[in-house]
Amino acid sequence: MAKTFITNPADGTQVPFLRGILTRSLQEAGLDFEDAYTLASAIRQELNEVDELSTTDLSELVLSHLEKAHSRDIVDAYQASGRIPASIMVKDVEGTTAPFSQNQHLLCLEACGLSTKAATTASEKIYQHLVENEILEISSARLGRITYECLQQYFSPDIARRYMVWVDYTHSGRPLILLIGGTAGCGKSTITTEVAHRLGVVRTQSTDMLREVMRMMIPKRLLPVLHTSSFDAWEALPLRYFEKPTQEDLVANGYYRQMELLSVPCEAVIQRALTERISLILEGVHVHPSLVKLIDKKQDAVIVPIMLAILKQDKLRKRLRGRGEKAPDRTGKRYLSSFDRIWALQTFLLSEADQARIPIIANDDKEKATVQIMSTIIDVLGKKFTATPEHVFNDDR
């Protein structure tokens, strides 16, 4: 698709047409993201053979589309918003220039522990500052410094420092190994997906998948404990470990045996990420606190173990029930019938995490739990952080 340039007749400034910028303007006028993106895409397609267009003509084109399909309030809001904003170009340390991406800016702010709402507010203030000061090109370091100062002014020095810690980490090249444990139904997969998106981590691994691979390689008759659920693994073991075992003793013992088997591929996955210096999120019930001890301490990776939990029985039951409704193959009824053992396993895992001083995060709300995980990562990074703003936001680093 050919590139269309938008020219501002007032000063001759010329920037490429950006669907994302138009989408954002339409959202500010009151459209939801899907409608805004669809309209921006239609206009992009309409301009496919157009090499150059003035800001005035583009605005009129957008208005004609809005008037056909949307209310007068939307049309008026778009007209009052200042129409198509000029694209702000950001130059990185290597001299490469790209349009300011509010999406990327938001992810960076969320990575330092801000909620989506707070990050959006901060990003909008910073973008408005750039527009009001007629900044059409800025270095990434300067943008970082402005963001840091904005967070100091509108939020707190602590949040500004956390942002600085994160930016410094992104420049370090160090891999992040995030270990997310927890029992069935506590939301490990959902949280992992959200955290990976915010951190920009492309490699995630589930211990359930590793167990499935091992099951294909080792038949049930040779290693029956591998072919059970983590909370039922004790049924495949001889009852000789306790004189009068409690349910938690049985569940913990079976789980521990299965976890030891899974620790081998888990260690291999982590080691591969360390060798390639790629960040990794490893999630699953088999992510036990002892897994941290298997990681080579000579590596300069950032290791962050976390244990997720649902601390109220009725909420965990509801999660397990919903799990079966959304994915019938995951047999929600079986999980509910095994609830007491799942709860006993969670009790054991939380006790193990507490003894190992691993953060326990209650996943009652996805956004809140995600923010707490981000904050935990920043806490780990910040323990030995001593850099200054002048060092972190330096064009020459």
Structure description:
With 397 residues, this protein is α/β, with parallel strands linked by helices. Helices cover 55% and strands 11% of the residues. The protein has helices at 19-28, 33-46, 55-69, 72-80, 102-111, 116-132, 140-154, 157-172, 188-199, 207-217, 247-276, 313-326, 332-337, 339-355, 366-382, 389-392; strands at 5-7, 14-16, 52-54, 89-91, 97-99, 137-139, 176-181, 204-206, 280-283, 302-309, 360-362. The strands form 3 sheets. It has a 5-stranded parallel beta sheet, with helices on both faces. A 3-stranded mixed beta sheet has the order 2-1-3. A hairpin with a 6-residue loop joins strand 1 (5-7) and strand 2. Helix 6 packs across helix 7 and helix 8 crosses helix 15. The chain is elongated and about 85 Å long.
List the helices and strands and how they pair.
Elements lengths: L4 E3 L6 E3 L2 H10 L4 H14 L5 E3 H15 L2 H9 L8 E3 L5 E3 L2 H10 L4 H17 L4 E3 H15 L2 H16 L3 E6 L6 H12 L4 E3 H11 L29 H30 L3 E4 L18 E8 L3 H14 L5 H6 L1 H17 L4 E3 L3 H17 L6 H4 L5
Helix pairs in contact: 1-2, 3-4, 5-6, 5-9, 6-7, 7-8, 8-15, 9-15, 11-14
Structure at a glance:
This protein is of the alpha/beta class. The chain has helices at residues 19-28, 33-46, 55-69, 72-80, 102-111, 116-132, 140-154, 157-172, 188-199, 207-217, 247-276, 313-326, 332-337, 339-355, 366-382, 389-392; strands at residues 5-7, 14-16, 52-54, 89-91, 97-99, 137-139, 176-181, 204-206, 280-283, 302-309, 360-362. It contains 16 helices and 11 strands.
What order do the strands of the largest sheet run in, or round the barrel if closed?
A: 8-9-7-10-11
Report the sheet with the most strands, covering strand number, pairing sense and barrel closure. 5 strands, parallel
Helix content: 40-55%
| Low-pLDDT segments, ≥5 res | none
